[in-house]
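Hi L.,

As promised, Cytochrome c domain-containing protein:
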Amino acid sequence: MIKRNTLSASLFMLLSMGLHTAASAEAPDLATGMLVNTCVACHGPSGSSHGPAIPSIAGMSHDTFMNAMTTYKSDERKETIMNRIAKGYSEADFEVMAAYFAKQEFVRFPQETDSKKAKAGAKLHKQHCENCHADNGFTDEDGSSILAGQWLPYLEASLSDFSKKEREMPKKMADAMKAVMKKGGEASLEQLAHFYASQTKKP
């Protein structure tokens, strides 16, 4: 009995050490942790947001993150809070943050969407958005950002800002936005938002 208990205790200690080592390997180093803590306070643990008005930044590509932060810092992109925050960091800091969040898994939380609007949005996506926002918005390439599974209120607000030209966008996106607005106006934007918000599995 004593030997069995001793063996069990030893096994428990070894397993505990293994789990601790695995957890430590996934955790950011102290310097990185100090930088990204400012971000996760709003954008959620590891960059997956719990707040419907705040986007998830987990899995965001290096280029997308760097573009966002540098344009916030220079005031080319207007956002009351982010402009102030970005000014407190250097480009080297942004590089560290970008590398960290690019490695994080984008966690999609349950949210209510309208299936009819999502179905209509799927058609709009295929016609006007698919070339840049591949895999139903799951893929972040060339600064396209991850749209699939983002919070619905955030998507609606962002699409509205783009349609009103309150946010800069490349010509290709501007042309697509113009076509979408011509087709159904604000209703089309709402349909696109419901489509992207409803995406939980990569096709």
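The chain has two domains: 32-102, 115-198.

Thanks again for sending the construct details.

K.
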